[in-house]
Amino acid sequence: MTTYRIACIPGDGIGTEVVPAACEVLEAVGAAHDLEFRFTGFDWSCERFTREGAMMPPDGLDRLREHDAILLGAVGYPGVPDHVSLWGLLIPIRRAFDQYVNLRPVRVFEGVPGPLRDASGTDLVIVRENTEGEYSEVGGRMFSGTPDEFAVQESVFSRRGITRVVDYALDLADERGRSLTSATKSNGLIHTMPFWDEIVEERCAERPSVSWESEHIDALAAKLVLDSRKYDVIVASNLFGDILSDLAAGVAGSIGIAPSGNIDPERRNPSMFEPVHGSAPDIAGQGIANPLGTVWAAALMLDHLGHDDAASDVIRAMERLLTDGPRTPDLGGGATTTEVTRALLDLL
Amino acid sequence: MTTYRIACIPGDGIGTEVVPAACEVLEAVGAAHDLEFRFTGFDWSCERFTREGAMMPPDGLDRLREHDAILLGAVGYPGVPDHVSLWGLLIPIRRAFDQYVNLRPVRVFEGVPGPLRDASGTDLVIVRENTEGEYSEVGGRMFSGTPDEFAVQESVFSRRGITRVVDYALDLADERGRSLTSATKSNGLIHTMPFWDEIVEERCAERPSVSWESEHIDALAAKLVLDSRKYDVIVASNLFGDILSDLAAGVAGSIGIAPSGNIDPERRNPSMFEPVHGSAPDIAGQGIANPLGTVWAAALMLDHLGHDDAASDVIRAMERLLTDGPRTPDLGGGATTTEVTRALLDLL
Ligand SMILES: CC(C)[C@H](C(=O)O)[C@@H](O)C(=O)O
Ligand SMILES: CC(C)[C@H](C(=O)O)[C@@H](O)C(=O)O
After folding, report:
1. What confidence tens digit (pLDDT) does each residue in B242-253 have?
2. What pTM does this model have?
3. Is-annotated flag, keyword Transport (chains A, B) (predicted)?
4. B127 touches chain A (CB under 8 A)
5. Do A157 and B155 count as a contact with CB atoms less than 8 A apart?
6. Distance from the alpha carbon of residue B242 to the mean position of ligand 1, in angstroms
7. Domains within chain A, CATH numbers bracketed
8. Mean pLDDT for the stretch of residues A133-144
9. Among B188, B219, B251, whose Cβ lies nearest the Cβ of A225?
């Protein structure tokens, strides 16, 4: 019996409804694979922020460090500005634990038609750089409050940062046996993106087993809609990966089920897994949130912890559930979070 | 009879095939509206670059300045890096002539089904900031050639730059009578995008007749696929506008017919009109390029010059042509550039 300590941060809104569902699934699949999960709950959230003035306590990161992985629901709350909630919790965790890969698989499931006439079979993974790039604290304003006011923000790309995420993407493409696409915009962003391209080219040259191409982000966004099946692994900067992964989830008609892994591939620190959807204040408290985004995130966690057999069990159960099981309203059904979770547990 | 001097820069590849077609259309519609066009051709291109080492002559901008508007085909050529061709022609023109609005209408035409199950009726305009923002020369590298190498690039947003493009978008939304959506990413880009949001909010507060909302670029990209009909005028930064407008053209299934206007709304300088598609070296020289992107760009030009009746004639002819006229291969037809142009001239 292997035991894992999992830090659970349900967060706000529907985050508090979907994380418990995913924990149940982990317990069920764990029982079949001789894995034990010890969950520690943390109430870090915007709700806590309005009460105590901080998203998490000063020793928050240290407490997380005692765990093998983190399961996050969603943070966000009407009245608390996004840049407070995110830069007070999500982004510090990504950086403190050097979770430099943001992994976002996107699939068109058989039972989920999606908005495109013809996207069935789409099965891709976006590997997003998760610690540097366009998301940078460097910047500020000048001449505030005057007509001459301006703001600057500096994107910062390091050779080390690009190399490691590209290498990760190459490993993944090699494993999946298909191809790698690198998102760029070297024709517009003439300092950072040519640097990105150079390193991509260098790394790919050392990996002849993977076929690859580079595509400008504008064209790539259009092609994801026109020809989504073509793509396998896409490697992108922090901002481009953010945009492409939401876009691809939209293309698959599955924002409610899309997961995201914030991963330290070297396993020096706990990695963090979360659904892509937000806290959805509009439906919070009604018990109708789709738990499958968090369940899929839990499957990514199992995979990361080295249990790909357990992860596959969860994915297979999800596939079957999506084909003919009950669905929450976001997928056109009328089932509750509990009903979907029950049905999934039955399938396991 | 009003006379306009039009600078034509066909550029490379299919640019040289579609610009003459659009000039014919301008002549035809001009004849019906008492407008005369005097075209001056310029061979500025990557082809010129490989021959003479520069995309345009040193006095290029001065020569353009003598014209009322510019019609550009496409630049780009295998072997000439994008950042050379673009920063040697397209981007200097945008900036020297302070063409601070990049206008990109996107429509789903009846006869052009596109990749989405249900996008018919989509009719939106992207108003992209076209001179500052993320496309910036400020930046460089440090520790080149060492493992510590890094590159930085500074986005620069000015109050003046944001205000004027937002005001333009508000005017347009007011005129179209629907709504304004502002693309942001203030939760990730914490210096520049909150500044953008502040100014959008200020300007919109003074225009109660326009209903508006702000949407993060990642969510907006997904929603453009899921619910494209919802959008009317979208205002966005240089980079976000670039991504969204290609994406929206993809959604409409019409990259081959999408136009772009680089506009100085104050009319101090010539504005520049171009199709969104590139030079397409793969089909260049075959006479099968779709001329409608450039034709639609010419309609935007007519509108900008104050002849919206002439512009409407062109658009109506295009609509009819797309419903049941001949089509080039990119739209699934077998017609040539000449055949499509002829058919359009007949409809005019
Ligand atoms: C070619 C490139 C520099 C250009 C841009 O990004 O502005 C193009 O994509 C466009 O949209 O006109
Ligand atoms: C909420 C936001 C800061 C975050 C991001 O952009 O990284 C989110 O969109 C995501 O993709 O996890």
Report:
1. 999 999 999 998
2. 0.95
3. no
4. no
5. no
6. 7
7. 1-100+258-348 (3.40.718.10), 113-253 (3.40.718.10)
8. 95
9. B251
